[in-house]
Amino acid sequence: MDIQHFLTFREVAKWQNFTKAAENLGYAQSSVTTQIQKLEQEYGVILFERFGRKMRLTQSGEQMLLYANQIADLFQESKAVIGRQECGTLCISTIETMAAFYLPKYLHRFRQVFPHIQVMLEPAQEERVKQSIREGEADMGILLDVPLSDPELTSIIIRKEEMVVVANKSHPFALLEKVEWKQLSGESFIMTEQDCTYRGALERELKTRQIPYRLAFELGSMEAIKQCVYYGLGIALIPKITILSELEKEMLCTVPLCMEDLSFYTQLVYHKRKYMTPSMNYLIELLTESPQAV
Questions:
Q1: In this structure, what CATH number is given to the domain that contains residue 151?
Q2: What's the pTM value of the predicted model, to 2 decimals?
Q3: Helix and strand totals (H; E) in the chain
Q4: N or C: which end of the chain has fewer CB within 10 A?
Q5: What is the pLDDT of residue 178?
Q6: Same domain, yes or no, for 23 and 64?
Q7: What is the C-alpha to C-alpha distance for residues 234 and 217, in angstroms, rounded to an integer?
Q8: 293 in a structural domain
Q9: Is the C-alpha dihedral spanning 187, 192, 194, 199 positive or negative?
């Protein structure tokens, strides 16, 4: 049963006249008559009765009008809600660093505009983030990596992230303005998990430059890494965005590492065949409106 039949029925009931209803709907009168007949056949009742030139609803017609009004109202409501994508779920796959230290302030603003969209953050390392997007498990992803080149994925570079060596305030690095690679020789490192992109880049550089180092701890939590650094258990290479609070409280010190040939970028990624909803487009606007590095 076509929903238009109910809308046509409402129009005929409003005007009590097939001709007038057809004019307002832009239909031929025969089309209006056919639609009403189909409704009557479907329900097995007569909806209108004639008395001379006058026409009025039957008892069945009056009941039908109540339902037709509800159907029409729900139809219009569904068009408004679904068309604006005001409800539903938005799944974002991202690394823990971005989930904890970058996204929250943007998600706060997003919720003010789309309060009925449920945002689900799926924590994962970079390769898993990309896999989730390729397989349609996540709507979009946030990466911290070198610029992505993938035939299936669209990548929008949001900003360049500053990577810093973080150390206890009593560490000799606290007196330096920057760190050269050779100065890392013999240092104890507190590192993220093995599949972390910037850990992999650090270890490759140390190996290429033949710089000896010690792996003191391997931790999956950025907070745990910072606590270990605070208590002097080693140094770490991490994004500066993750220690802004500690720097403000003067709990840790940071020094830039000369990494001219190795830059990491916060990137928004989605599948090239992904249908972009209004809520997704709005989040992209938020994330890209002020692409300034920390």
A1: 3.40.190.10
A2: 0.68
A3: 11, 12
A4: N
A5: 87
A6: yes
A7: 8
A8: no
A9: negative
Q: Is 247 exposed, middle or buried (0-12, 13-18, 19+ CB in 10 A)?
A: middle
In 3D space, the residue among 160, 150, 153 whose CA is nearest the CA of residue 138 turns out to be 153
- Give me the pLDDT at residue 209, please: 92
Question: Could you tell me the maximum CA-CA distance found in the chain, to the nearest angstrom?
Answer: 104
Q: Let me know whether 67 and 116 are in one domain.
A: no
Tens-digit pLDDT profile for residues 238-251: 999 999 999 999 99
Distance of alpha carbon 151 from its chain centroid, rounded?
A: 21
Query: Pick from 268, 261, 262: which is nearest to 283 by CA?
Result: 268
What is the CB neighbour count within 10 angstroms for residue 109?
Answer: 12
Question: Model confidence over 209-226: pLDDT tens digits?
Answer: 999 999 999 998 999 999
C-alpha pair distances (Å), 235 with each of 84, 196, 199, 224, 228: 48, 17, 13, 12, 9
Domain membership of residue 209 as a residue range: 162-260
pLDDT confidence of residue 293 = 43
Our count of domains for the chain comes to 3
- For residue range 123-176, list pLDDT tens digits in order: 998 899 999 999 999 999 999 998 999 999 999 999 999 889 999 999 999 998
Q: Give Cβ neighbours of residue 89 (< 8 Å, ≥ 6 apart).
A: 117, 118, 119, 120
N residues, the chain: 294
- Beta-carbon count within 10 A of 209 CB: 11
